[in-house]
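Need a sequence for this fold. Nothing fancy.
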């Protein structure tokens, strides 16, 4: 809510938010009331039970005492014996609260353990993604099929090589699975099968469209995920200047709510400053410059290529201007045999593909000479 406060205010969504939060918070309030009511009932029962137990033995043996059949000592001895037997037999009542919280804790832990086991099984039960490290410099995908958690297959990459040292663009319709492909390459997408071979010892970095910017000092945000002391102040300032964030270079020690304060484009450039510090061998940009104007975007690419000559840049993007900034291009295309087989019916095929929720990209030539376009088919079930 704190993060999206501005969007809610712009949409005048206060009453809708109150309703949604009221619904969620209402469940917590009613649960709390249920706990209070149950505790009152429990305490009323156990307190009256234990208080009654103090007098019950005296009530039972008092007539015998007054008739003179037993002495006062025998009466107190009887009450003491009753108390010991009663406390031995009322273990369950006395420990009811501890047993209930023990049961709740055990249940929480067992469901947590079951969830961990379930998550582990997803990544290891066949068919599963195999991540190998090889001595080649290139990144190779073999027989890769990416699926959704429900098993629906969305991306096929039979044999795909992303060459080291060559800027590569991945383009295709929205929702066709480009980000999922990057997630799989990073090793955080367990659904699917095939082999991803990556260069041993190479460092990888992936920038999403909305970078994570932690609150705190600006230096902490730029150095993330490394600790702020990993870089000296001048290196951080220089990276901000290179990322076209010169006005912020003097504020690296200022604490602020940076994700709220910085614009979308500034946050994306802050992520670029992070890359310039980190100097990864492979850089994956998932629409990581989409909030910048085309001129600034081209400038940022130029800076990245100049400042990081050993880094291989692989980008996802929708803008046609990106084509000229990359040497190779992979395009997601609809995986329908009839679309490729019968070129006369392209109009009908286009309508069919659109009715399935995605559209065909125009087939452009790569930006520079010597480049080539490879196509990753998109599942026809989408
Ligand atoms: N965790 C998930 N559970 C279910 N479906 C998912 C999940 N993540 C992604 N998807 C679905 O997978 C498909 C591909 O998503 P992905 O984000 O890879 O698309 P994309 O090509 O990057 O799109 P865009 O260009 O809009 O960013 C989408 O239909 C999306 O709804
Ligand atoms: Mg995406």
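Here you go.
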């Amino acid at each position: 809510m704190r993060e999206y406060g501005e969007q809610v205010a712009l949409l005048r969504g206060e009453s809708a938010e109150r309703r949604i939060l009221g619904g969620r918070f209402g469940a917590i309030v009613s649960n709390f009331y249920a706990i209070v009511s149950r505790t009152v009932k429990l305490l009323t029962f156990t307190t009256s039970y234990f208080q009654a137990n103090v007098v019950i033995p005296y009530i039972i043996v008092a007539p015998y005492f007054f008739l003179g059949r037993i002495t006062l000592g025998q009466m107190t001895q009887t009450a003491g014996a009753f108390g010991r037997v009663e406390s031995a037999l009322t273990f369950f009542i006395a420990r009811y609260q501890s047993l209930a919280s023990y049961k709740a804790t055990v249940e929480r832990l067992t469901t947590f353990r079951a969830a961990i086991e379930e998550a582990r099984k997803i990544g290891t039960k066949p068919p599963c993604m195999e991540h190998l490290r090889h001595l080649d410099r290139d990144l190779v995908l073999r027989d890769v099929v990416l699926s959704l958690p429900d098993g629906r297959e969305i991306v096929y990459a039979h044999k795909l090589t992303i060459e080291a040292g060559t800027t590569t663009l991945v383009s295709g319709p929205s929702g066709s699975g480009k980000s999922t492909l990057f997630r799989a390459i990073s090793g955080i997408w367990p659904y699917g099968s095939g082999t991803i071979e990556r260069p041993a010892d190479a460092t990888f970095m992936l920038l999403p469209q909305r970078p994570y910017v932690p609150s705190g000092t600006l230096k902490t945000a730029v150095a993330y995920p490394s600790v702020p002391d990993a870089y000296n102040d001048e290196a951080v300032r220089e990276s901000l200047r290179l990322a076209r964030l010169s006005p912020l270079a003097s504020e690296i020690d200022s604490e602020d709510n940076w994700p709220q304060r910085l614009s979308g484009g500034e946050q994306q450039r802050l992520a670029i400053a992070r890359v310039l510090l980190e100097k990864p061998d492979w850089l994956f940009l998932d629409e990581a410059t989409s909030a910048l104007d085309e001129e600034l975007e081209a400038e940022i690419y130029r800076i990245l290529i100049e400042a990081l000559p050993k880094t291989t840049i692989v980008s996802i993007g929708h803008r046609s201007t990106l084509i000229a900034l990359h040497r190779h291009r992979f395009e997601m295309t609809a995986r329908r045999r009839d679309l490729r087989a019968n070129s006369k019916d392209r109009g009908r095929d286009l309508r069919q593909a659109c009715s399935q929720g995605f559209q065909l990209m125009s087939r452009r030539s790569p930006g520079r000479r010597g480049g080539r376009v490879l196509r990753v088919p998109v599942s026809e079930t989408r």
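For context: The longest strand covers residues 153-162.
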